Amino acid sequence: MQTIKIIIALSIAIILLGGCVPDRSTKIYTSGEALQAEDVDEGVVESTEPATIRKDGTVIGTIGGAVIGGIAASTLGGGKGRDIFTTGGIILGSMLGDLFEKGVSDQNAFKIVVKLDSGQKIVVVQKADVTFEKGERVNVFSSRMNNTKRVSKF
Fold it and tell me: Is 35 exposed, middle or buried (0-12, 13-18, 19+ CB in 10 A)?
């Protein structure tokens, strides 16, 4: 019974931590980004294609899955059999935990190629909450704070 409580608690922690993904939307600003001046360039969308924003270098899912898999599998068998099950549970749990984390934290995005009125071409990857068409006039907001860019409807 105690093992089940531990597994449930770890699962809830992994789910909650998996949701800690920064939002790359044109409409959402953090409190630190709000009220900050941004430079604006105008341009034309040359192309868009689907992309995925994946959280950088986290191992929360892998480690959490390994812990849960190891604990769950350690209840099976006895002696050397238990060791084999535990090892297998750790390996399988880590793989499933990694896949789970990617599924929870991945965000659908667009890779948008914009030709600015200055003649320069840029590519911006941002959350797929606003769609853009080839030839559409857009604004490109450039943060003075953290060098990020966002494409927005004109």
Answer: exposed
